[in-house]
Amino acid sequence: MNASTTTPRSPAAPALRILRQRAVQAAAVVVLVSTACFAIVQSLPGDIAFRIAAGRYGYDQVTAASADTVRAELGLDRPAWQQLLDWLGELLALDLGTSLVTGTSVAGELGLYLSSSLQLAAAALALALAGGATVGALAGARPGGILDRITTLWVSAARALPPFLLGLVLILFFSVHLGVLPAAGHGEAGNIVLPAATLAVGLSGLFARVTRDTVVQIRRSEYVRFAATKGLGERLVFLRHVLRNTGVTLLSYVGVQLLILIEGVVVVESLFAWPGLGHSLVHAIFWRDIPMIQATALALALLVVALNTVVDLGALALDPRPRRREVVL
Amino acid sequence: MSMRLTHLAVRHTDTPLVEVSDLHFEPGRPVTIVGESGSGKSLLAHAIMGTLAAELTASGNLTMDGQSYDLADRANRRRLWGRAMSLLPQEPGLALDPTMRAREQVAEGAGSFTTDRRAARRSAGTLLASLGLGQASAAFPHALSGGMAQRVAFAAATIGDAPVLIADEPSKGLDQQARAELAKLLKRHVDAGGSLLTITHDLDLARELAGDVLVMKDAHIVERGPARRVLTEPAHPYTRRLLAAEPANWTRPCAHAGAPADAGEPLISGEGLAKAFAGQQLFSDLSLTIRAGERVSLSGPSGSGKTTLGNVLLRLLPPDTGYVHHAEALHGGRLQKLYQDPAVAFPSRILLRDSFGDVIRRHRLEPGRLGKLMASLRLAPDLLHRMPGQVSGGELQRLAIIRSMLLEPALVFADEPTSRLDLITQQETLSCLMDQADRQQCALVLVTHDDALADAVTRRRIPLGPAENAIDRVKTAG
Amino acid sequence: MTPVAARTLLAVLALFALAGPLVWPEHAVQDLSRFLEPPSLAEPLGRDPLGRSVVARLAHATQLSLLMAVLCVATALLVGTLAGIVAAWRGGWVDTVLHGLSEAFIALPALLVVLIFSALANGDLWTLYIGLALAQWVEYFRMVRSRSGLVLAGPAVEAAWMLKLGPAHVLRRHLWPELRPLLATMATFGIGSSILALSTLGFVGVGIRPPTPELGLMLTEAFPYYHEAPWMSLAPVLVLTTILIGLLSLRRKEVRP
Which residues are bridge partners to B16 per DSSP? Predict the structure, then answer.
């Protein structure tokens, strides 16, 4: 039996359920990332107290006495699990600590990184969706046509060219050979073009393929054929039935691709020295700046959860069908 | 408006799939084409509309309103769609856009939709209300029962006032009550002076629509005439066979065989059973006993909970209250189940040979028994070298019967085992099942939505009432 | 590209990865006098700024990438598949716990997991291995869990239980045939993305530490000399894209159903 539930309930109930599920997920992510960061601290060679003291007072001023003070103050002589609970407790109190490298408050810098990462991700996503969905819809309207074959080629090419290679190619071409666009930096309008384009080229290929396949499949569906025999013109059938249903599929696919987008952001930021979360994370890992690693990794992971929540709510608005309990990837 | 078809043919490369020399439709007189699946009857409908699949070619001529159309050109009738001729699709559940409200989908069919959307929506609302769907007009398709979706599709197909309505297997997946409503709707279109062509394998629907009946077999029309004559005094042997295969006409003596209800020892006893599903009480305080050698049917419309009750009795599903007891005689695989779709009852990517081999090895059966059973059910031995998906539904269901009989069960539970089969195949399959059950003296519980079938096969019937407040009925039980 | 051509291409690369380090064993020997030596017969890809043999480094790097990728994918596949089957089969608290864990992992970009792990020790191989495997198990787990859930709840398995065919039959005839093609496709892509992740880490400087040769690292080191010695940059790029294209073309049917 596959009856679907239609027990009357308030229209907000599914939205609340999504928010609750995602909140639990966010909490689990925080615990996981934070515990991993704690493990890094424990595994670091040398005396942790000494390193923290060095972070506070600078390597020149640090003495054995100051390291001892830190050890007593932070309870570093207690068993590991007690320290882990403390560590998580601090996070719960929204205390992200100070950077071991710059000595400034991590929370203060995080906002800046987050906003520039968001800028980059949004620009890339907008570019990829606009380009990919348009080309995909056009290719799907004529399966087997020239545009369709070009799309197929582009998809394969985009998959075989990982972001960092693609970025290098773009730098070589636009910055080194043509000299029209800046290869690195932030703050000027032109700076965002190359990193966003690097991300968008890869993503748009995926979006184009999914859009194309979905359009082809939906155009063959019973409801599109019925809409046509009802007497609705070809253009209206496309606008009213094909597009909306493609949107439903594409949106949930965007949700799946968010991970790839965020991974891409990390790589591209490092490549183009874009001062966002990914760039700072890589830097922090290089310098073993643990408070910074934790903060940026948390921000990136929570960003994925937040964006997924937005996608879920969007899908809920577009598609009235009762949700299956989980999307099968 | 009358419509005439001449020299209609549909081909796939060089294989003729439909060949009909002359067909005539009068306003006010329904035409019904009956025949088994694969006879080409649905292709006929699509050839008329111009909606054949791309790999098929049509030829012939359609005359309508003094205008002549070449059937080979599939685009020339597009402007007639919805205005002069209209198609009521199979399985309305799939033909409605899942993301659009019912009224909007109906309004799209109105002639005024491109010029005045508000007026189109108003008339859609009025039409839906007149079909008893006033409340459902704002609903999305997933919230509609099969019968309601059928009515919405009917409204969408007829709102454009097309005089010719073609209904392609419209009763597929509907229970008896929903089918009666459908027949009423179709007759309403005829009474309003429209022409109606119905394609169906459902002889009851053909009877209810009256008018003319055409019997189709292997791409040709073998018999035609008024429904009253063709469906009572058939002239062609095929029509006779078709009619004899209706459960109500079965004459097999085994139809009422089986032990009387109170003779055998109890195999399954259920006490005070209740089950709710999706917020809806399917049954409550139900007690029943199934005894050795008995023939029992669980019948009722879709959504009445007959499959659920079956699964509770088989202890595949826990009841909300009450308990189910199984006798010793059922242990060790002597309780078997047959499924509505046999294709999903076998592991789908494994050769049938291996599926059966596992049963034989596991229970140390004599390997020759499989061959004997297959021969007695008229199944070719090389069927075993195929995947389940490569065997026809009727043959696969017979293989499933064999599989269940290998373990010499004391009770076989058959859940709508023939609802996806043609009348003739249904009769063949069920007579195989009854033969085997007789031979092994095993009890049989048959779940069916078809009262005539229940009467033909079983002595005792456990009717399950239509579920109250059934907003969303289960759509699986065809 | 046809699957046959893809297989040939991958076989050639595998041969290079396996036999290359034997033919050109000395990847660490520096000879500053042979600074940026152009390609010759003996040194098909010339020498790098430290005078090391580029072809020897490339062979070792390819071997490292392929071995690591296969090892990580095998581990992730094994762990994820077993956990997925156990979760779907047992249900109850086992499923709740495993599913909850996967919910947290699915929100973590794989690269993030690997990055965090690479911080655990100074780019040691084992941390990268654990990080990559840990980042990928969840894909297999989720696919296997949901597929197995469907199969185990389906009529075919129900019939198998009623026929008393036992769990071995269900595993062998129902679950495995259903999972195998999907696992093969996922593993193919998984190897590709593992190789990519490794080279990405090397490229941004937090992966395998120099002087161990690694494709991404080699690219970073060669890029400043792009004008003087373009072959040095192009060689690792060529190896990377060949592997990726080969892997993608292997599974064309599943990619474009």
Answer: B11
